[in-house]
Amino acid sequence: MSDKIEQNQTHHGMRGTNQSGLRAWNEKLLFTLLHTEGPMPKAEIARVTGLSAQTVSVIIRALEQDGFLEKGEPVRGRIGQPSVPISLAADGAYFLGLKIGRRSSEMILIDFSGTIRDRIVRRHEWPEPGAATEFALSASQELTMRLSEPQRDRVAGLGIALPFQLWDWAAALGAPQDVMDRWRSADLCGDLSMALPYPVFMRNDASAACGAELVFGDTSLPSDFVYFYIGFFIGGGVVLNSTLHTGENGNSGALGSMPVRAPDGRMVQLIELASIFGLEKRLILAGLDPDLPWQSPETWPIPETILTAWMDTVADAIAQAIVACLAVIDFKTVVIDGWFPASIRERLTRKVVEATARRELAGLITPAIQAGSLGIGARALGAAALPLTNKFLISSDAGLGSGLGQSVSL
């Protein structure tokens, strides 16, 4: 079908169609609207989507019978019939999210509302393809078996958040090069697709974290923003027109590879200055346990002098990267997030604001710089969001991001 449906610009660009044969599109439209805006009565759904009241009623009735939607308590106004809010049924579908990290692997199970229902975490010295496959299979089986039999039938897919080109970082990981080289030929997504009874998707871990911010995070973000996620290594994501832009090879937003100037004047990659492994190095030099940042995501028992020095270096390096990003795309907002306590995230974000203000910004427009909203769970949530968006939400590329605000060719 070649007809282009022009979408309503007044409400995130969502617009439905009453044409026959487009039931699946309208169902995704309703799922996306309720996921984004929360519970809404039928009349409001019809107004926002442009669908007839009859079409909305038919779709809602069918989806309610299928267990995907549920009715709330009637809300009585001063006049007329009470309105009944319609919402996503939390038990309507379940999604698995696998995060393969440099120091641990994590599998989560989320429900249709995006709430994390369960998780399994395994620590490792470094990620290895065979161990990753084994963990994914055992953890997915364990998590799904904890569900009731009817709930297990509603598991809709598995998403994977994985650092790309791991073989390039063997030295930083302290891992044998021959072990990391196994990732060159590994096909984790393909292997799991063959072994599991539901679809499997994969995305770069930092891009997945950025996608999680789109799907589950701050709904007030503008349509274009650049995202930095600080884990063992720093990475990032680029959002254009409310859609995560990953590029032909899935590697757009590889901000860790951006060249920046170190305090000693050398040109290095951002990853060397703005990653948690740099904090590990500082701890080792001070004779302290480099595992301190990983012992608890809620509190970091790290001496203040070491922590402040690390954050100052990180903030200055990210500020340089922000200026470079602004020279390419006029981003209105920069989002800073990472695997650290919320208090550290807030402090670091303020330092990035200050460091950016000290940079030369002639010819550029200073963006708003704000903290992310998901923190340590962003990558696993981004992984779980992959099957959610693919099956139930509107997206221009069947990946992360709602795709709202765009025309959709049908």
Describe the structure.
This protein is of the alpha/beta class and 410 residues long. The protein has three domains: 85 residues, Winged helix-like DNA-binding domain superfamily/Winged helix DNA-binding domain (Arc Repressor Mutant, subunit A, Orthogonal Bundle); 131 residues, ATPase, nucleotide binding domain (Nucleotidyltransferase, domain 5); 156 residues, ATPase, nucleotide binding domain (Nucleotidyltransferase, domain 5, 2-Layer Sandwich), CATH 3.30.420. The chain is built from 15 helices and 17 strands. Helix 9 packs across helix 15 and helix 13 crosses helix 14. The longest helix has 25 residues. The radius of gyration is 22 Å and the shape is globular. The N terminus and C terminus are likely disordered.
Shape: globular
The CATH homologous superfamily of the largest domain: ATPase, nucleotide binding domain
As laid out across the biggest beta sheet, the strand order is 7-6-5-8-9
- Share of residues in helices: 25-40%
Strand content bin: 15-25%
CATH topology of the largest domain: Nucleotidyltransferase, domain 5
Radius of gyration: 22 Å
Q: What is the architecture of the largest domain at the second tier of CATH? A: 2-Layer Sandwich
CATH class designation of the largest domain:
Alpha Beta
Structure summary, number of beta strands = 17
The low-confidence runs, each spanning 5 or more residues with pLDDT under 50, are 1-13, 396-410
End-to-end CA span = 5 Å
Q: Report the mean per-residue pLDDT as an integer.
A: 88
- Number of distinct helices: 15
Question: Main sheet?
Answer: 5 strands, mixed
Domain count: the total is 3
Class per helix and strand makeup: alpha/beta
